[in-house]
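User: Fold this; tokens only.

Assistant: Input:
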Amino acid sequence: MDKRASTDKMGASLVKQVRVRVPATSANLGAGFDCLGLALELYMDLTVEESEGEGLEITATGEGSGSVPLDERNAVYQAVRRAYARAGKTLGRLCLAIDSQIPLASGLGSSSAALVAGLTAGAELCGMGLDREEVLRQGVAVEGHPDNVAPCALGGIVIAALDGEEVAWARIEPPGDLAAVVAVPDFPLPTSKSRSVLPERIARRDAIFNAGRVGLLVAALQQGDYSLLRTGMQDRLHQPYRTVLVPGMEGVLTAATEAGALGAALSGAGPTALALVTGRSAEVADAMQQAWAEEGIAAQTLVLGLAAEGVQCVKER
């Protein structure tokens, strides 16, 4: 954290300043519903300044800047406030500057990024320092599941499960030769809507189907045996039910693997589709974009590295 004493543009004494960077994430990877995710080299940057007095000023640039609330409803601010409440501290006058590359409501962890960034900035401003495990616990307490929060906080590839009020997790260092191709269609899909179509109960055969595949998926990522990825990224717990909300999803995933992807799945709650590759990224991206186009849907494609670092506090130069 960069602390300094000066005067801000409103004339108040500037007490503290912190800059935080958090990665986008992709949850589930098919079979790992609500328990597996990875961090991507696409980021949200947050600068928070606390001055004496009261008040709130928020500016937003980048993705979603025209739609995120710039008042106390803002998700980043709410997370900062949560960190202060946990520390038993009183908020001063806050100025938040949010610059995000992460599309909103796209299945790339924008809500977890906002949550983790705010919790981290708040903890730093309260003098508690960066404790990624505590950020993970606090984030899961808000979201209810660890699949995005865990890789956002810890970086890399993370499999996690709730054990009472604790989060049990294991992290895999992301292979350097593996990249993600994401195809982001031109429509949002709120997580709440995507979850609303999921059944309360599932067939035993579907549970067995996913249990075997998530084991193969973790083994593939841990051991570098990419021949297991196509099978390991198959799913019966959530993707089949979400097809009604993501037209053409199956065609996009099939196009990705036919173009050379090692495996493909819906990213988080969607609507983004994600494919893992070690090469042929341009061909895979083109195939996914064309498959969306055949449904009459425009899509943006990105080729992203897997981020080894989770949340970071960045000092100003």
